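Example 9 (inverse folding). The structure is encoded as follows.
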């Protein structure tokens, strides 16, 4: 989700009011500060804290000093508590000319309801800037200049509204966002299978996105206007993908064959789709995007598709190029595949083993889990050829056994008993750049991705104990591997950047192997530094977001509240294009944020307007407040 802050509506009293953030404030003229060596004056503030027509009993009223920099947490000068009718009086002694605000907060932690704002801020003048005759008025609170005497400042907690979203078929959730794409957190929410309700939202304009169960946006963004005291209804429907279809008929000696496994692989070798033929030998598969694919009619039981584990048939692999929206037909003729069967001998402490069949290219074409109670296995639907059959015990010792067999069409080959006794071998290596990091022996992009994954896989699909730390000298050791071909995926830290390698293939031999991993050719996260400013002055306490075309909205950097220079640090993934940049003040769950997290207001970003590389974020300049 993305969220956007929002400023409250303006009210006038003896001192004209402009309501702002729920738990922070906007200082128009962020550089304003306290006059030095000015005489102290006593300023008495009086007024009533209300929500609707009722006074807010027990509300906390604070006189706060204008921060020096935009984004700093304002300091509290004096505090008072409203009476049972909501009236208050508080006197602050400050140097003459000090810039002040008065902030009222309902002291019930939101338990009353989500009908009214939790907090509001009042300043002097109450004059809100208006963007001509166009859509928005942007309330900017003008600070009160301290002079001796009394100031009347009534504070009204704004009436909030709600959004009720109905989900269309295929959608599982909703993202509520500001217009700049940052997430909004409603004061309260509820849901059913087909609806989501967000309550306690400041009046203004928001966006909603329908999402799938993985959190990916799958509907065009809809703008929705929230009105105080009412609920706005909106429905979102899943965008129709531009699909093609792969269809075909599978035959054997001219007769249709049912229950033949049909699997579609992408250009990266990863499974995309799978099905089986019907009684007429027919299959159909939807392809959401265009591109080059391989359609396999061999029975690869490692593929989780209906019918693949029991298919007797072996057929060809066929290449096909799909154009989005254009149907393609791929027919195939199959034969009765070869069969291998055998038995695994178990040690006393071992209950499970994995049997895998590896082809001449080092690719696993079949796997079976074998239990000690029933130690036999039967694998059908193999093409004619030579295979290696491994049995691997599921134990920390990673013992294995191997046999080489020849498979013939429509024939059964018996494999002699496999008794895992051989220890896994060791792969040693060195980073060419000699920088610390970590290495996985894993099959990407089809296998587990991430150095914290519990299991890792060889390029042939086998489970391996293949995670190793890299020393400062660049050395690493991966133990307990079965001989075979692996992808070495290296996470390497160096010069403020983290590199991600997926292209290095290592052949691990029976006696172990040694490799040198070259410097990563593709950086997946590059560090950057910069500044965030507004009107030439530093901005602090902010998170910088980017909206990736694929990955969605992410925080890529921040300026801490303790900063006095607006110094920004972060890291950016350059592989996915950035569509826009946005900024939020404070952590999403921090009550000292500049705007309320349940509001639509945000500071726009004047520059950069485009981001193609981390260096483009070196200087971020904020523009005017938007979102009403």
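The amino acid assigned to each position is listed next.
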């Amino acid at each position: 989700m993305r969220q956007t802050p929002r400023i409250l509506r303006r009210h006038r009293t003896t001192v004209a009011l402009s309501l702002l953030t729920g738990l922070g404030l906007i200082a128009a003229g962020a550089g304003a500060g306290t006059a030095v060596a000015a005489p102290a004056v006593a300023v008495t503030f009086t007024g009533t804290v209300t929500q609707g027509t009722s006074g807010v009993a027990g509300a906390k009223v604070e006189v706060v000093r204008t921060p020096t920099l935009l984004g700093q947490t304002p300091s509290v000068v004096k505090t008072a508590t409203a009476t049972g009718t909501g009236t208050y009086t508080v006197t602050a002694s400050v140097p003459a000319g000090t810039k002040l605000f008065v902030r009222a907060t309902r002291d019930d932690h939101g338990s009353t309801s989500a009908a009214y704002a939790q907090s509001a801020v009042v300043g002097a003048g109450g004059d809100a800037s208006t963007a001509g005759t166009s859509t928005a008025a942007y309330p900017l609170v003008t600070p009160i200049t301290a002079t001796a005497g009394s100031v009347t400042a009534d504070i009204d907690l704004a009436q909030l509204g709600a959004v009720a979203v109905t989900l269309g078929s295929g959608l599982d959730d909703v993202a509520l966002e500001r217009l700049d794409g940052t997430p909004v957190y409603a004061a309260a929410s509820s849901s059913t299978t087909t609806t989501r309700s967000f309550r306690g939202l400041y009046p203004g304009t928001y966006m909603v996105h329908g999402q799938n169960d993985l959190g990916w946006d799958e509907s065009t963004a809809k703008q929705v206007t929230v009105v105080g005291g009412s609920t706005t209804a909106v429905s979102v429907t899943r965008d129709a993908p531009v699909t093609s279809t792969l269809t075909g008929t599978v035959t054997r000696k001219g007769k249709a064959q049912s229950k033949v496994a049909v699997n579609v692989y992408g250009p990266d070798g990863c499974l995309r789709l799978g099905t089986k033929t019907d009684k007429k030998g027919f299959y159909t598969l939807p392809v959401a995007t265009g591109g080059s694919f391989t359609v396999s009619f061999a029975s690869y039981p490692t593929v989780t598709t209906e019918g693949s584990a029991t298919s007797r048939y072996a057929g060809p692999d066929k290449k096909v190029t799909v154009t989005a929206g254009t149907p393609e037909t791929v027919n195939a003729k199959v034969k009765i595949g070869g069969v291998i069967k055998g038995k695994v001998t178990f040690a006393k402490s071992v209950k499970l083993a994995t049997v895998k069949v590896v082809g001449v290219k080092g690719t696993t074409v079949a796997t079976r889990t074998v239990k000690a109670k029933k130690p036999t296995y039967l694998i059908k639907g193999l093409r004619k050829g030579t295979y290696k059959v491994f049995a691997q015990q599921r134990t920390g010792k990673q013992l294995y056994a191997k046999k080489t067999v020849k498979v013939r069409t429509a024939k059964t080959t018996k494999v002699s008993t496999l008794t895992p006794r051989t220890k896994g071998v060791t792969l040693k290596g060195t980073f060419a750049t000699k920088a610390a990091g970590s290495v996985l022996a894993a099959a990407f992009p089809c296998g587990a991705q991430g150095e914290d994954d519990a299991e890792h896989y060889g390029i042939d699909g086998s489970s391996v104990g293949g995670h190793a730390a890299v020393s400062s000298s660049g050395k690493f050791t991966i133990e307990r591997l079965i001989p075979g071909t692996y992808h070495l995926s290296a996470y390497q830290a160096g010069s403020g950047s983290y590199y991600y390698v997926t292209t290095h293939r290592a052949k691990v031999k029976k006696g172990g192997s040694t490799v040198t991993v070259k410097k990563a050719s593709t950086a997946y996260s590059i560090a950057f530094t910069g500044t965030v400013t507004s009107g030439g002055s530093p901005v602090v306490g902010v998170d910088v977001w980017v909206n990736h075309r694929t990955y969605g909205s992410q925080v890529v950097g921040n300026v801490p509240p303790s900063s006095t220079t607006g110094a920004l640090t972060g890291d950016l993934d350059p592989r996915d294009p950035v569509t826009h940049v946005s900024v939020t003040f404070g952590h999403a769950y921090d009550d000292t944020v500049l705007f309320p997290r349940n509001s639509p207001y945000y500071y726009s970003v004047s520059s950069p307007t485009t981001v193609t590389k981390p260096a483009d974020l070196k200087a971020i300049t904020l523009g005017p407040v938007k979102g009403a």
